[in-house]
Amino acid sequence: MSRCDWTKEEIKNIYQTPLLELIYQAASIHRKYHAADQIQVCSLISIKTGGCPEDCKYCPQAARYQTNVEATALMREEEILSSAKKAIANGATRVCLGAAWRSVRDSAQFDRILEVVKEITEMGVEVCCTLGMLNESQAERLKAAGLHAYNHNLDTSKEFYSSIITSRRYEDRLNTLDAVEKAGVHVCSGGIIGMGESVEDRIGLLYMLASRNPHPESVPINLLVPVPGTPLEEKKPVPIWDLIRMIATARMIMPKAMIRLSAGRLGRSLEEQALCFLAGANSIFSGEKLLTRPNPDFDEDREMMHLFGLKIRPAFAVNS
Ligand code: SAM
Ligand code: DTB
Ligand code: SF4
C-alpha cells in the first residue's frame, strides 16, 4: 500500500539504513510492485533550446549564463515528429518534449505543441512535456491532446530552493503540479543531487514528493551535470552511494512510481548503473543527447539491457 503520510524522520531513517540492507529492502519492494526485468526507455527532444529567462543555477539553458548553448526557436512540427519517429524506432516507449520556457503562453507555439502531442500519442507511445509553469486550462488542453505526463521538478527541498533559483518560488512549482494533477495528466516530478545540498535537503525533497496524494507517476533523479558557465560549474560529483540511497529511498516510500535514473548517467560504469537498477530505478533516458548534454546512445543502452537481462517496458503498462 502507498502511504502519503511519511514523516521526515521516517524518510531519514530509511535513507540512513546500512547500505546493503537498504538496497535489499528497496529491491524487495521493487519486485513486489513492478516487473523487475523491465525498464522504461524514454527519449528527450529539446523542442526549444536555450534563451530561458529563469536563473536556475544548474541550467545551461538560462540566457544569463555564458554557456555553449545556442538559443533556438521552437522546432517545426515535421522536425519534432521525425525525431520522435527515430526515437520510437530505437525502442523508446515514452517521448519527452522539453522547452526552455519559464511558463507556457497561449499562442500559436502552444497550439503547435498540442498538435505534436496528439500525433506522437497516435504513434502508440506515452508523451510527456516539460514546458515550465502551466495553468489549469493549459493542462486541460494538453490532456485533451492526449498528453500522458507533465514533468516539472521540485529539484530540491523547500529550504534549499532559493539558493538555486530565485526567479520563481517553490509554491509556483507546487501550483503547476496541482494544475497538472487536476487536469488528469500524470505528474512527473523529481530533483537533482550534487548541487551542494545537505542530506536534510534530499530528505526534504523526497518528503515533498511522497506527501503528494497520489504520488507522482514518475520521479526523475538527476545527478548534477556541472556545465561551464553556470554558477554550479565547479561542483564536485557526489559519491555514487548517495545516488543509490536516493533511488532506494524513493523506491521504498513511493513504491508504485517509476524512478528514473536521469541526467548524469553518462560516465557512470555499468556496475554503478546495475546497483541503481537493483535499488529500484526502472526508467532511463536513452539516446545520445539529453536536452543539451551528451547521454549514452541507444546502442550502448541496448547492450547494457541485454547484459542485465532487462527488457523495455511497453507504453501504457499498468503496475500491479
Ligand atoms: N524549463 C522547464 C522547467 O524548468 O521546468 C523544463 C526544462 S528543465 C531543463 C528540466 C529539468 O532538467 C530541471 O528541472 C532540472 O531538474 C533538470 N536539469 C537541467 N539542467 C541540469 C543539469 N545541468 N544537471 C542535472 N539536471 C539538470
Ligand atoms: C529531468 O528530470 N531530467 C531531464 C528531463 N527531466 C527534462 C533533463 C535533464 C537535462 C540535463 C541537462 C541538459 O541536457 O541540458
Ligand atoms: Fe529555464 Fe528550465 Fe533551465 Fe530553469 S531549468 S533555466 S526554467 S530551462
Description:
- By secondary structure, the chain is of the alpha/beta class.
- It has a single domain, classed as Alpha-Beta Barrel (TIM Barrel), CATH 3.20.20.70.
- 39% of the residues lie in helices and 14% in strands.
- It contains eleven helices and ten strands.
- Strands 1, 2, 3, 4, 5, 6, 7, 8, 9 and 10 form a ten-stranded parallel β-sheet that branches.
- Strand 8 (258-261), helix 10 (270-278) and strand 9 form a beta-alpha-beta unit.
- Helix 1 packs across helix 8 and helix 3 runs parallel beside helix 4.
- The longest helix has 15 residues, at 19-33.
- The chain is globular and about 55 Å long.
- The chain starts with 7 loop residues before the first helix and ends in an 8-residue tail after the last strand.
- The mean pLDDT is 97.
- The chain binds S-adenosylmethionine, 6-(5-methyl-2-OXO-imidazolidin-4-yl)-hexanoic acid and iron/sulfur cluster.
Q: Which molecules are bound in this entry?
A: S-adenosylmethionine, 6-(5-methyl-2-OXO-imidazolidin-4-yl)-hexanoic acid, iron/sulfur cluster
| Number of helical segments with 4 or more residues | 11
Tally of strands:
10
Rounded to an integer in angstroms, the radius of gyration calculated over CA atoms is 18 Å
Low-confidence stretches: none
The gist of it:
By secondary structure, this protein is of the alpha/beta class. The protein is 39% helix and 14% strand.
Please give the structural blueprint.
Blueprint: H1 8-15, H2 19-33, E1 38-48, H3 77-89, E2 94-99, H4 108-122, E3 126-130, H5 136-144, E4 149-151, H6 158-164, H7 170-182, E5 186-188, E6 191-193, H8 199-210, E7 218-223, H9 240-253, E8 258-261, H10 270-278, E9 283-285, H11 298-308, E10 311-312
Parallel strand pairs: 1-2, 1-9, 1-10, 2-3, 3-4, 4-5, 6-7, 7-8, 8-9
Helix pairs in contact: 1-8, 2-9, 3-4, 5-7
This protein binds S-adenosylmethionine, 6-(5-methyl-2-OXO-imidazolidin-4-yl)-hexanoic acid and iron/sulfur cluster.
The site of iron/sulfur cluster has 9 residues, from loops.
